[in-house]
Amino acid sequence: MDATSRLCMRTEMELERSCPVLREYGSEQSLLSRPDGSSTFVQGDTSILAGVYGPAEVKVSKEIYDRATVEVLIQPKMGLPSVRERAREQCVRETCEAALLLTLHPRSSLTVILQVVHDDGSLLSCCLNAACMALMDAGLPMSRLFCSVTCAISKEGQIITDPTARQEKESRALLTFAIDSNERNVLMSSTTGSFSVQELQQCIAISQKASEQIFQFYRDSVKRRYSKMQ
Amino acid sequence: MSPMKLCVPGERLCSTEDCIPGTGTYLRHGYIFASLAGYVLRKNEGEELPVISVVRETEAQLLPDVGAIVTCKVTSINPRFAKVHILYVGSTPLKDRFRGTIRREDVRATEKDKVETYKSFRPGDIVLAKVISLGDVQSNYLLTTAENELGVVVAHSEAGAQMVPVSWCEMQCPRTHSKEFRKVARVQPEYLQA
């Protein structure tokens, strides 16, 4: 009992000491004229431009009779999309499928296109945040919002939230989580490197704590935008 | 006879002095390692040392054959045929879905020229059908429901409730009591007891 209490207290102190510090982030919506919804999301020097098209007509081979088909394309800054982009596309697509109410648009397709403008670490998190803002701008019905936080574990065991590209390179593990806005559950996790179970739990707790700031930012930006429209 | 032991790739099974490597294994530094995930099989094939191999659960893929009764889900409708996905062959589920076609002429045995496809099936219905042909270059199975025991067995109304068959060509919603046209399969006696 006393040992458990001391362990919880130490964990709380560690959580408070490593209070998640996110880099400066910003977003803008409706900046492109052609897509049904568009947004840009900036985290530090990482920048993503997102466009959402749909609901639109779907190919016969990809048609699902009772719900929409979600397609995600990630365009890198230089060159053609490769295996790394395909893996990230799958993470973004499954997170969007979990958040969107796809049964309202059967036999249609929703396309999310993410253009990498600059990459300075935490690219998958920025992609997910930009996709969420773009889906909101398109007005698609969603059961919940989602945001993403990346944690890096350095060689000394320190947890860094929202790491830069240099911090990512020097770390021994990189964990990315997508958190939903209703119950702060983990919708998606993508990890590389070696870490222990305690470190994973700590990273999830830190990500859930950091997601409060991003959800508050979502709410503030939407509030500001729709109050300006009146 | 020892129980079947599971192994994963990279697991050391035994030494070369005890066994001879078989399929699913490889030899390195005098030891036999597993290269597949599955069950360890040790077999004496007449030699002085037994052969050790790793076998996987190789279930043979079941294919629909001509004359087989299959369970399908309707995916799309047009005035000439209905497109379906075959989910079961008999009572065996399929790993992959096969595509099939129920032509307008194969919906029922009588009054073939008066059949209207949208009064026989709707997308999402579960249909019992019989395979009459393996199909053409698009590899669509040709199916028929021109028997009393074949047709729609599960259908949902616009209100979302599962409908109850009331005749061979009609189903009724238990919630809204509206009737919809379907080519209904005759209810089997073993299901009436439930």
Query: What is the rounded Rg of chain A?
Result: 18 Å
**CATH H level of the largest domain in chain B: which superfamily?**
Nucleic acid-binding proteins
- What does the main sheet of chain B amount to? 5 strands, mixed, barrel
How many beta-strand elements of chain A? 9
What features would you highlight for this structure?
A: alpha+beta, Ribosomal Protein S5, domain 2, five-stranded mixed β-sheet, 5 helices, B: mainly beta, OB fold (Dihydrolipoamide Acetyltransferase, E2P), 2 domains, five-stranded mixed barrel, four-stranded mixed β-sheet, 1 helix, Exosome complex component RRP46 (chain A)
Describe this structure as you would to a colleague.
- The complex is a heterodimer of chains A (230) and B (194).
- Chain A is of the alpha+beta class and 230 residues long.
- Chain A has a single domain (20-223), classed as GHMP Kinase, N-terminal domain (Ribosomal Protein S5, domain 2, 2-Layer Sandwich), CATH 3.30.230.70.
- Helices cover 38% and strands 29% of the residues of chain A.
- Chain A has 5 helices and 9 strands; from the N terminus they run αββββαβαββαββα.
- Chain A has helices spanning 2-17, 83-99, 123-138, 165-170, 197-228; strands at 25-29, 37-43, 46-56, 69-75, 109-118, 146-153, 159-161, 173-180, 186-193.
- In chain A, the strands form 2 sheets. Chain A has a 5-stranded mixed beta sheet with strand order 1-2-3-5-4, with helices on one face.
- The longest helix of chain A has 32 residues, at 197-228.
- Chain A is globular.
- With 194 residues, chain B is mainly β.
- Chain B has 2 domains: 6-55, OB fold (Dihydrolipoamide Acetyltransferase, E2P), CATH 2.40.50.100; 68-188, Nucleic acid-binding proteins (OB fold (Dihydrolipoamide Acetyltransferase, E2P)), CATH 2.40.50.140.
- Chain B contains 1 helix and 16 strands.
- Chain B has one helix spanning 189-192, and strands at residues 5-7, 12-15, 20-21, 25-28, 31-34, 38-43, 51-55, 69-77, 81-89, 92-103, 126-133, 141-144, 151-154, 164-165, 170-172, 179-181.
- In chain B, strands 8-9-10-12-11 form a 5-stranded mixed barrel.
- In chain B, strand 14 and strand 15 form a beta hairpin.
- The chains are: A alpha+beta (230), B mainly beta (194).
- Chains A and B meet through loops of A and loops of B.
